[in-house]
Amino acid sequence: DEMEQRALRNAGREIELAAARAAANRWRQAAESFEARLAERLASTALLPADVSGRIDARVIGVERALTEETGLLRRPFFKHLIYAPQPSYREEVLPRIFEAIDDARWEAIAGYEAQLVAGFERAAALLEESEALLAGAARTAGAHNPPIAHRGAQR
Q1: C-alpha distances in Å from residue 150, one per residue of 39, 56, 84, 145, 146
Q2: Which of 33, 78, 93, 140 is 20 to 30 Å apart from 147, CA to CA?
Q3: Can you give the pTM of this predicted structure?
Q4: Residue 138 predicted with pLDDT over 90
Q5: Which residues, listed in sequence order, are joined to residue 85 by a DSSP beta bridge?
Q6: Three-class SS of residue 6?
Q7: Residue 82: partners with Cβ closer than 8 Å, 6 or more residues away
Q8: Which pairing describes strands 84-86 and 92-94: parallel, antiparallel, or unpaired?
Q9: Using CA atoms, how far apart are residues 74 and 56, in angstroms rounded to an integer?
């Protein structure tokens, strides 16, 4: 909504970012679902196997990386994040590629930037869904071979 309002306010142009909004909602839903599964797991007494924990950690770390693009911003290629970047004044710039395309009146670039954003959200959601599946699989195999949660410190 913010970028759509910015385009209308600054240039009298209407843009539609429905695909990005839908992908962001999918990412949010995947994050909420993963967090709920993780909370269930943390409330249990079963220890998460180290190999599963490592695989989940790698995916969760990958979520932030999934929200970057190798090419970076047009005039600041060292800023690669799709959701935020600092402005030269250090104020935040949300959806920086779209933000800068609006400011530069590069309207033809917005659809491509939205596609990059959608792809990033989809990558991030997929990683969280994989993490949740790993937690679910570990819960099914948990049992007598896993010591109680109180003994975790000794095994790490």
Answers
A1: 16, 21, 40, 14, 11
A2: 33
A3: 0.85
A4: no
A5: 93
A6: helix
A7: 67, 68, 69, 95, 96, 97, 116, 117, 120
A8: antiparallel
A9: 34
Rg for the chain (alpha carbons), in Å? 20
Give φ, ψ of 5 to 5 degrees: -65, -40
* Gap between the Cα atoms of 22 and 81, Å rounded: 19
Residue 46 has phi, psi (to 5 degrees) of -85, 135
Task: Determine how many CB atoms are found less than 10 A away from the CB of residue 80.
Answer: 16
- Model confidence at 18, in pLDDT bands (50, 70, 90)? very high
DSSP 38-78: HHHHHHSSBPPPHHHHHHHHHHHHHHHHHTB-TT--SS-TT
Distance CA 26, CA 126 (A): 9
- Angstrom distances, CA of residue 73 to CA of 3, 107, 112: 17, 15, 13
Tokens 């079963």, residue located = 46
Q: Which residue, among 149, 131, 123, 133, has the nearest Cα to 46 in the 3D structure?
A: 149
Q: Where would I find the H helices in 71-106?
A: 96-103
